[in-house]
Amino acid sequence: MQKKISTSLVASFLLATSNLYSAQNLETITVTSSLIKSDEKSATFATEIYTKEDIKSSKSKDVYDFLSSQTSVNVSPYFGNGFSQLLDLRGYGIANGGENVVVLVNGRRMNNIDSAPQLLSSIPIESIERIEILKGSGSVAFGDGANAGVINIITNGKNDNYIKSYVGNNGTKNATASLGFNYEKIIANALIDYTSTDGTRVDLNDDKDENYNKNKNFNIIYFPTDDLELNLARNYSNMDTKYAGSLTLDEYKNNPNKANSFTEQYLSSYVTTGGFKYNFNPNLSLESSYSDEDKRSEFTTFKSKYEYKSFVSKLNYQENNYKVLLGVDGFDGDRIGTSDITNKNNKAVFVSGEYNISDDLKVSSGVRRENVEYKYEPNGADTLKNDEYLNAYDLGINYQLDNISSIFANYNKSFQAPDIDKFFSNGLFNDFIEPSKVNNYTVGYNNIRKNNKLKLSLFRADLKNEIYYYNTGSWATSFNTNIDKSHKYGLEVFDKYLINDNLYTSLNYSYIIAKIDEENEGNGTYNGKDLPGVSKHNITVNLGYDINNLNTVLSHTYRNSAYAADDFANNFNQKQEAYNSTDLGTSYTYQNVELFAKIQNLFDEDNGLWISDDVIYPVNFERTYYAGMKVKF
């Protein structure tokens, strides 16, 4: 009955978009994540752009919540770890999708040198100004890992001054304090954020998967002259989490709150970032940044220390009808274990250009040359080294049909150099494996009116050496390797419609087919099969209503059934079940005070992540809720 109600809600949202009219305005937004800035209507690649107002209207409590309920990104906790979640864009599979998308915060890479997901729980959602998603593009600008695209999270230039707190079921508590200062040539921001829960799953000893997450951010921007900007930021994250292991199908159906065991992890991260931007004249500018991160990850049986250093410098030149950018960047990462040190070092040079042939026609192109070096230094044994030179290319064209619509086409060549975990099996060095290489093709249509924003795109990706884990059925003989040849294709639709001054609806839909063409390790068993963990139909729908000071949004997320994450032969007895979640959020604002509340998984749907038969991790499997208050000053 619950699923029928959810389906009816989705259908009603879609029908609503065709009947009414609005007098409000939807604006064309500038895309800042590409090397050369462009607005979304004239961009030569596919985009999804979400503003601070979009984020606020969603009533999302964190970044993962927003990505899952509003965007085309598939999100799932990392084997039960809600603070560190898996991402998938354009059908690379929930197990490996996050390694095929580059995630940035203000241009700083969040991707790790090992298989750990990007730590987006270190970014308080209140600090975010905008989220930009580049699909099937971004490899020239950001290189290694941008096969599916790029997610760039941009934080506030100046914070609002406020305190915020909420409480919810399962002992959920949050408190946030934000300060922003602006005086003449100085902007200074500080933010403290704390979240904790008592947990949702219980083991035989009545212990629960309790956790907490603390974030502290400070940054300062100084303008010595009108042409020079200096910036410095310090971010600190500290989290302790317990997450439960998998369940059998019977256990999952009988009681998904049950836990047979817990894994406990402590994680801390200190990030220092500094940079500058200087305008030599109206046509020429130089910007550069440097980042240093020290991170510790501790489990009960082992721990690792990480040291990351990165830099990027870009020289921009523009005239009336063309723009050119030259740049260099680098990333040097160490994982320091108790018995070894493993290093991954990336260095690259890139160039990008954009030329306006006419007022309506624009072409863009870019090329990147990147060197990736690996070094494995076990204590008391020989050092192993390897390196690769990899290339990325991008070619795009955009033609504006009229003042409100445009068409575009894009070709992008990208690559993924393996993370350091891919060279190990069962804790022992396996071998250096091949980087994956992808040819991406995208064509699309944009139509941006005062009351409606529509984006359509068709894409295809041809892959060589897609990286995956070959599971023989025994952990002792399984290993990481490459799929010889594979491909993906699909359709993407985004539409936001302002029905009237108070009512709006939005739709984000993607249809994705991901196929394995050839793979030798399976002796032909995998040939022609679907890549596991990829849903064909993915949809998020929203219906929002604003009147006076009351704002309400009803949303639904649906992903259809797929093969379990390890089912490369498509022959397991159990499949990944469809995902359904309906959320209802509301807020009321009076002067400087905002009261808000949200119910997630309104109809109490069972959801889980299937790895294989009887290996199921419950995900968003029960109704949750929270309510709180925000006071500005």
Automatic annotation (TrEMBL):
Coiled coil: none annotated. GO terms for biological process: siderophore transmembrane transport. Residues 41-150 form the TonB-dependent receptor plug domain. InterPro entries: Beta-barrel_TonB (IPR000531), Beta-barrel_TonB_sf (IPR036942), Plug_dom (IPR012910), Plug_dom_sf (IPR037066), TonB-dep_rcpt-like (IPR039426). It is found in: Cell outer membrane. It is a multi-pass membrane protein. PROSITE patterns: TONB_DEPENDENT_REC_3 (PS52016). GO terms for cellular component: cell outer membrane. Keywords: Cell outer membrane, Membrane, Receptor, Signal, TonB box, Transmembrane, Transmembrane beta strand, Transport. GO terms for molecular function: siderophore uptake transmembrane transporter activity. Belongs to the TonB-dependent receptor family. This is TonB-dependent siderophore receptor. It comes from Arcobacter suis CECT 7833.
